[in-house]
Amino acid sequence: MSVLKRRVPIAGAVVxxxxxxxxxxxxxxxxxxxxxxxxxxxxxxxxxAARAVAEEIGQQARAVCVDVTSNESVAAAAxxxxxxxxxxxxxxxxxxxxxGKDFLSVTEADVERTFAVNTTSHYRTVxxxxxxxxxxxxxxxxxxxxxAGLVGVAxxxxxxxxxxxxxxxxxxxxxxxxxxxxxxxxxLYCPYYISTGMFEGVxxxxxxxxxxxxPDTAARHVLDALEAGCQMKVDPPFVRAAQVAQALPVPxxxxxxxxxxxxxxxxxxxxxxxxxxxxxxxxxxxxxxxxxxxxxxxAELAERAVQSRxxx
Length: 312
Ligand SMILES: NC(=O)c1ccc[n+]([C@@H]2O[C@H](COP(=O)([O-])OP(=O)(O)OC[C@H]3O[C@@H](n4cnc5c(N)ncnc54)[C@H](O)[C@@H]3O)[C@@H](O)[C@H]2O)c1
Hints:
Membrane topology: Multi-pass membrane protein
Family: Belongs to the short-chain dehydrogenases/reductases (SDR) family.
CATH architecture: 3-Layer(aba) Sandwich
InterPro entries: KR_dom, NAD(P)-bd_dom_sf, SDR_fam
Shape: globular
Radius of gyration: 19 Å
Bound molecules: nicotinamide-adenine-dinucleotide
Strand content: 5-15%
EC number: 1.1.1.100
Pfam family, one: adh_short
């Protein structure tokens, strides 16, 4: 195993993008297609959104309605991907949600759902495709985490820990792959805020060092980092300071975060006032597979989750 950076070619690759129906997922799916991917599988909870992106891309794309929190849904979608293409070369774990609630308003269901989408889904999707990657000794797993996975932020009591979990997941996976001498690549992406609408209303104090990133820039940076063989990218580069600052005494770290206005960023957060972020989902809901029936108040969500693939 080389210590040098191994580039990950997107041209010719079969790429899965979770949460590919919107935001940077949509742009990464489109970007991967533009860079010559053999196939781009747009996985999203919203069938309509996934279909719209697949239509934008054209023949290389498949729109797949997948709930990444469901074992059955992911297993069915993964099976279809492997049946049609024989392999998946690049998995981009991008699906994510946020409530933006203050600590006392965050419910147990909020916490469970946030972790289910942002963190534990990664185990499920990686387990679906890692065996094939290990067999071929190539492939890449991309974790879209967040700068909030490097430092805790006010009004992110569910989101930020879920992203710390995603960061830990990506680092542990990288460590284990290295330990076993595998050439399967991992990339961890930790961006500050991106203007996709997910964090609508957030504000930043110092735009020069901590700008709100445009979705196009974020998507391009992930694909560039992958092709360049990077293993971790923070965006903008100043986010690296958050990692370094963790080594400081807590009162100093807190003063620095105050200075940069980090805990005020969420004061005017509205997020997506409608859409999947706002949809309720019972903490006790069972994972649903391709053949499950919609149930109760969760019917619309379940209905979307049961359709495991929409061909073009
Ligand atoms: N927008 C930001 O400011 C920002 C900052 C840091 C990190 N991120 C991360 O980047 C990623 C993409 O964010 P975005 O801003 O493009 O958000 P977005 O809301 O535009 O896209 C998220 C997508 O995930 C999908 N999704 C949600 N739950 C799902 C589920 N259970 N199964 C399948 N798909 C599901 C949604 O339908 C949506 O299409 C997320 O992981 C987010 O946490 C975003």
